[in-house]
Automatic annotation (TrEMBL):
Protein name: Membrane protein
InterPro entries, alphabetized: SusD_RagB_dom, TPR-like_helical_dom_sf
Family the entry assigns: Belongs to the SusD family.
Database matches in Pfam families: SusD_RagB
Length: 530
């Protein structure tokens, strides 16, 4: 009986009162509370909320996800990033049950709504079709995520009953073949212009940008390059002139770079990035939930666009002791740490009387904080109203370049895309221009190293690093090391703050199905090694 209840809860539409505001609070049938355009809008609001933009969910907020990777450390185990980052998990870890149930719950609801999209009375058929396509796009997103995390998973596009809810898993590649063969119809039923309000909803190009991301993730490089070029050719988006301003109030709501937007409308717009990421400081608000690691700090190359190991201007030791020295300007736009100025005061992580002391619970265990999304204007407030991008135009440019590099087709447009991102970042283009003769002798491995690092520093703190180290199959190298923080010189030797040991096994590239999931659906097979 418990198994039957579990399956029904996973797939039923009506399990959560918060999911849909009912027009009639006494409604008892599907038609009674799903009957007009307002209901369609509420369905879309709530369908985005849990998976993309629930401001109260530390497990899903995009800006905390780097805690799963070598970029950052997550200090709260129940946020589910820490255990993934340090490898302390197995098939009984609730982390994976939470994420899997989240996807399956929403897929059940989406399938039901899409199947009944003609129930609400909407005079304009194009409006109904638009909402249907937005919901279909969200359904694609769930399957992209499920296959990327677990591989083979159950796949259905119809409302589930007990039998279909327990169907065997479909091979990952079969699911992807369907998704990549059918995205165009959805995109063509979406408006090409960004919405004036509710701009988080998919439009033609933002949905294609999502498909582009997962085409890259799944080594469908030709498709990724094609979609990236379509978005580039549309001229609907452009790089904002000032990189740093995208992540504070100066430009977060006034730029042409954001393609996929965070949904603030469905919960009145409050955001909590200062609380989640910011220093404890004097306000008591900052929680330092996820903080940068030395690994990320060292990945910022020089102002001239070369690794700090190769610099002829300064030694690696000098760079490690002074991260701001001759560095890619994206470092100072993204990270703050010991010796930097915050709200008019110098940060001292070694002062035991200071709330920023690195050993205090709510301080940074690494001695670094993300500067992205932490605007001092929010320092003395309970919340903010900052706008965020879930996908920016810079990612489109880097996707085109990476796809072409992986296809060994490095054309002028790929080099121009890299240059555009580097130039906007403020690198010294007399050296960092990838069309210079120096780069003409680059091997494919060198191009791969360059584009991967470019992506890392451009998108640091935006929740994509874990996905990248998984798809590049380098997690077993970068996560089998201790998590380190601020570096200092002691008796002539460099010492870095050690936070924790980490491990990553070869089977961890796929997540385990939780034991409850396997008991409920015997058609699912556990991934190898768990």
């Amino acid at each position: 009986m418990k198994n039957i209840i579990y399956v029904l809860v996973l797939f039923t539409l009506f399990a959560c009162e918060d999911y849909l505001d009912k027009t009639d609070p006494n409604a008892t049938t599907f038609v009674e509370f799903f009957n007009d355009e307002g209901d369609l809008r509420r369905v879309v609001y709530s369908s985005y909320r849990d998976v993309f933009t629930n401001n109260g969910s530390h497990q899903t907020n995009f800006y905390l996800k780097d805690g799963k990777s070598d970029n950052a450390y997550s200090r709260i185990q129940s946020h589910y990033h820490q255990n993934v980052g340090n490898g302390n998990f197995n098939s009984s870890s609730r982390d994976f049950l939470y994420y899997y149930e989240l996807h399956m719950k929403h897929l059940g609801r989406l399938n039901t709504f899409i199947a009944n999209i003609d129930v609400p009375y909407v005079e304009d058929e194009s409006v109904r079709q638009r909402y249907k396509s937005i919901l279909e796009g969200l359904r694609f997103w769930h399957y992209f995520e499920l296959t990327f995390r677990w591989g083979d998973v159950p796949f259905t596009l119809e409302p589930a009953d007990l039998d279909t809810a327990r169907k065997p898993a479909t091979p990952k590649e079969d699911i992807l073949d369907y998704l990549f063969s059918n995205y165009e119809e959805i995109a063509n039923n979406l408006p090409k212009q960004e919405y004036a309000t509710d701009k988080f909803m998919f439009n033609h190009y933002s949905f294609k940008a999502l498909v582009m991301r997962y085409a890259l993730y799944n080594n469908r490089y030709a498709l990724a390059a094609k979609l990236a070029k379509e978005i580039m050719d549309s001229q609907a988006y452009e790089l904002h002139p000032e990189y740093a301003d995208l992540f504070n109030y100066k430009a977060s709501s006034n730029n042409k770079e954001f393609i996929m937007h965070y949904n603030r409308e469905s919960y009145s717009g409050s955001t909590y990035t200062f609380r989640d990421l910011g220093p404890h400081f004097r306000t008591g608000n900052g929680q330092s939930y996820v903080v940068p690691l030395k690994s990320l700090v060292d990945s910022y190359w020089t102002l001239q666009g070369e690794p700090i190991d190769n610099s002829l201007l300064h030694s690696k030791k000098e760079y490690e002791l002074n991260p701001s020295l001759n560095r890619d300007p994206r470092y100072s736009a993204s990270i703050i740490g010991h010796g930097d100025i915050f709200y008019g005061e110098e940060i001292d992580i070694f002062n035991g009387n200071n709330p920023m002391y690195y050993e205090k619970e709510r301080a940074s265990a690494s001695g670094y904080w993300f500067k992205k999304f932490v605007d001092e204007a929010d320092a003395f407030k309970g919340s903010g109203n900052m706008e965020f991008a879930l996908l920016r135009y810079a990612e489109v440019l880097l996707t085109y370049a990476e796809a072409k590099i992986m296809l060994n087709e490095i054309d002028p447009l790929a080099k121009s895309a890299i240059n555009d991102v580097r130039r906007r970042a403020g690198l010294d283009m007399t050296f960092a221009d990838v069309t210079l003769p120096t780069y003409g002798a680059y091997t494919n491995d060198q191009w791969v190293e360059l584009i991967r690092n470019e992506r890392r520093v451009e998108l640091a703190g935006e929740g994509l690093r874990y996905d990248d180290i998984i798809r590049w199959k380098i997690a077993d190298k970068v996560l089998n090391k201790p998590a380190l923080g601020h570096t200092m010189e002691v008796n002539g030797e460099l010492q870095s703050i050690k936070i924790e040991d980490r491990s990553f096994k070869s089977n961890n590239y796929l997540w385990p199905f939780h034991e409850n999931t396997l008991r409920v659906n015997p058609g699912i097979k556990q991934n190898p090694g768990y």
